[in-house]
Amino acid sequence: MLYTLRMGKKIRLLTLVFLIVAAIDSIRNLPATAIFGPSLIFFFLFSAIVFLFPISLIAAEFSSRYPEEGGVFHWVRNALGETWAVVAIWLQWVNTMVWYPTILSFIAGTAAYLINPEWAQKKEFILSVVLIVFWGLTFLNMRGIYVSAFLNTVCACVGLIIPMGMLMALGALWVLVGNPIQITFSLDTVFPTLKASQNWVSLIAIMAAFLGMELAGVHVTDILEPQKNFPKALGWSVFALLFTMILGALSIAIVIPQSQIHLIDGMMQTFTLFFQAFHIPWFVPILTIFIIIGSIGGMINWLVSPARGLLHAAERGFMPQFFAKKNRSGVPVRMLLVQAFLVTLFCLMILFMPSINAFYWFLTALSTELYMIMYILLFISALKLGRPHTAFSYQIPKGLRRLSCVFGLFGCLLTIVVGFFLPSDINMNGLRYALYIGIGNVVLIAPVFSLMKYKKLFSS
After folding, report:
1. What are the C-alpha distances in Å from 66 to residues 209, 221, 285, 393, 451?
2. Which of 249, 294, 298, 421 is most buried (most C-beta within 10 Å)?
């Protein structure tokens, strides 16, 4: 999409709002937030203040400040040096290795409703579909078969706008006709106390829904009057994201008891109940196909992008040149193969988890923690660089820079801490879960130090 925009006119306000919302908004994370009931309202607003706004402002200024060398690697390198830049790009890459199984599981759980809804809770079925879809898309990308930006956008719209719109409309109709509601609203349920650590666990699911917001900043050099329009677009986008995500998650929570929400196929659980209640069960397979198309379409570009990001490390001598080899289509095939094998290993974890919900939540939490560490590096970079002396197309308004960084660092650190706590609705030992999270972080971050050692040994 960015390519097509660069070929034409400057991006106007409404177009920019659509770009940001389409890139971030997702129905996949709604069941994971719905299990926390009314308190999700507070945490969505809290997350917007301590993370969504700060990272968007920082990314916009970075994109304007370094228009010729965008991305996390270059942003961190200019502030903290090449070594920390490699750490940042490694975290961004390895995070996606953990993230892939969650989106793939969502696709598999949704696909089960085309055959037998009970299969959505069968580990063997989920694992089979996950591996077939991921390896299939990997080989397609190796052959240089890419989906255009236009088709990718259409897929995302089909899998987002139609299901999200129907979910909110059916949720409102459910309440209006007087059907039973599974949650209650009060000051105690909406506003969590600091003593109730279980409530704060929901921060993980909500932060996970906002990951990738820094990508919105890449459009800043193409915006018409960016100093005026970007803050407006950001405000409208955050409003649209909060509106759709809060109402979407509440639509699930009012229909299904919190303890019975499935994280993988919770969307289809909800739609099935809605369609049965309103006597249109025949629409289930149609909507299932919409969601699958949207999920796969939105995932295609993600397969190559992280691998290309890690190529920066290989090209600067942090990895053997073996991994930097590209085929005739310019695809880093060996990097993609390593990526596919790692994702396969993470997917096999489903066989050792006590439930599919535990598998999904564990990977969501681990992926979010890794990404938060990368965001910490971005906020530290912004603090170190300070306010630019040269005028760029976009600068954070005076007085907001340090405040944004402090809020952002607080939000990231808080998310990392609560990531070690397990929701009460997940069937798993809490101590074992915390141990797994700790080990997962260490195991996945440790290899980056090997890259630094490799550069030191073979740079001469």
Report:
1. 27, 10, 46, 11, 26
2. 249
Look at 211 and 310; give whichever has higher pLDDT. 211
CA 405, CA 411: separation in Å to the nearest integer?
Answer: 10
d(CA 196, CA 388): 42
pLDDT 10s digits, 387-433:
777 666 677 777 788 899 999 999 999 999 999 988 877 888 889 99
67: which 2 tokens?
């228009």
Is a pLDDT exceeding 60 seen at residue 73? yes
Our measurement of the distance from residue 276's CA atom to the centroid of its chain's CA atoms, rounded to an integer in Å, reads 31
Q: Is 288 exposed, middle or buried (0-12, 13-18, 19+ CB in 10 A)?
A: buried
Residue type present at position 175:
V
Burial of residue 282 (CB within 10 Å: 0-12, 13-18, 19+) is exposed
**Residue 152 parent element (H or E):** helix 149-176
Q: Among 343, 344, 326, 347, which residue's Cα sits nearest to residue 335?
A: 326
Report the C-alpha gap between 283 and 272 in whole angstroms. Answer: 9
CATH classification number, 2-458, choose in 1.20.1050.90, 2.60.40.760, 1.20.1740.10, 1.10.287.1080: 1.20.1740.10
- Where are the domains positioned within the chain? 2-458
- What is the distance between the alpha carbons of residues 107 and 110, in angstroms, rounded to a whole number? 5
